[in-house]
Every structure is written in structure tokens, then in C-alpha cells.
Design a protein that fits this description.
Layout: H1 11-14, H2 17-25, E1 33-43, E2 46-53, E3 61-68, E4 77-85, H3 98-101, E5 122-124, H4 134-144, E6 151-153, H5 155-166, H6 175-178, E7 190-192, E8 201-204, E9 215-217, H7 230-235
Antiparallel strand pairs: 1-2, 2-3, 3-4, 5-6, 7-8, 8-9
Amino acid sequence: MTSTTRAKADAACAGAIEIARLGLVDLVPDSEVGEHLGFDVEGDRVVTHYFAAERSGYRGWRWSVTVARASRQKAITVDEVVLLPGADAVLAPAWVPWRERVEPGDVGPGYLLPAEDDDPRLAPGYTAADERPAADAVREVVDELGLGRPRVLSAEGLEQAAERWYSGSHGPRAPIAESAPGRCATCGFLLHVAGPLGAVFGACANAYSPSDGRIVSYDHGCGAHSEVDVTAAEDAGMRLPDPVLDTIGNDEVERF
């Protein structure tokens, strides 16, 4: 582990292992100081010695003790003592900003998650010159048309939403869709939606479907399809679920 890449090792500093150890045990319990692991040359008459750290919870860490001596002086002093991770040290995960840690479903009642000013998923809802009254005139028109939002989905935001919906639990590859007798595109309970995603997605309005009130892809499906043919489904290997009998509850019967 000895290194002389910066300067030639000073013999006195390189051999000051006991001085480095004594300086270390002045700060930490002797039981936490393990064997000497070697040293690195930091510069002229400056050497850092390493000792194994025996502290609980710091497996693979090492104590770093830097010693030095002045020019033409024999006295060696301890300059710095720190605890550093080694190659096999157990480290905490890299810090991830909270914005990157938030996942769908994390926002609950009372939580606020503001969109950033440069959020690539959003684009200006309207454009106008900064001078008045031109900007006011444009604003009146977009408000009347229902386009008064400051920002709307950008092309990137639309693409991300489409990919997320299509590959999720209400897309064609969901287990319930793969076993469905029909697709949402042919279901009477499908509500068509306006906008750029209306060519691929609609909204389910079947109260008995697990997708009720949710956006579904046209090639999604479930067992509550409006045109389901029970006989044909059973011939194809599908069947209705077995009836459930309540063997715990009691039904009150009025006596006459």
C-alpha cells in the first residue's frame, strides 16, 4: 500500500507508526484501532498512515493519520486524523434529490408537488407579445376558447403519458386484458376522449369493471365487456367465477 508517487518517502515520517497510533488513540478508544495497513506519501516530510477501523458498523473503513515534520527538524507531529472508507467499505447509497425520488402515488392529501419552471413535460399554453394591449387581447381569446391555462402538455409530456398508460395496468399487456373476451375498442361502455391521445385511449364507464373511471387503451379489455358471450367464452376455455357462499354471516328472517 506504500506510495511514493508525489515525493520520496521521508524515512522518519514513514517509520512514525507508533506516533501515529498514539495520536489516534488520544481521540478514539484503543479497541477501535486495528492493525497498521500501510502509508501514503502526501508530500515532502508528510506521510499518511492507515490503521484498520474496528468500530462497530464501519466494516471496511480505516483510520487515516497524517504526520509531518519541519525541515531539518526531528520532531514529528500529528496533523490530522480522519475515518475514511476503504475499497470494501459499506457506504450509504448515493444521495438522490427528492424530485427524482418521488414516484406516482406518493402525493397524498395536503401534499404539494409544484412543477419546475423548465419542466420538459409542459409547454406554454399561449403566446403573445409582452406589450399591452396585444397580450390582453390574446388572453381574452384563449380564455373564451377554454385555453387559458398558462402551460399545457408538451410533445415530450404527451409521449411520456402515452407510454406510461399503454405499458401500465390498463394497457394491452395487462393480465386481465390478455384473458379478456373482447377489446375496449368494441365495448359499449367506452367513452371517447378528445385531444391528441384520443386516437389510442378512452375512458371506461362500466361500474362493474376494474377500469371504471380510468383511462384505458383501445386494445385493453376485461371480463365485463358489453358484448361478452358467456357460451362462446366457456367454449374458449373461459368461465364465470364460482359462486361465493357466505358461511359466516347470518341472514335475519322475519317470523310470521
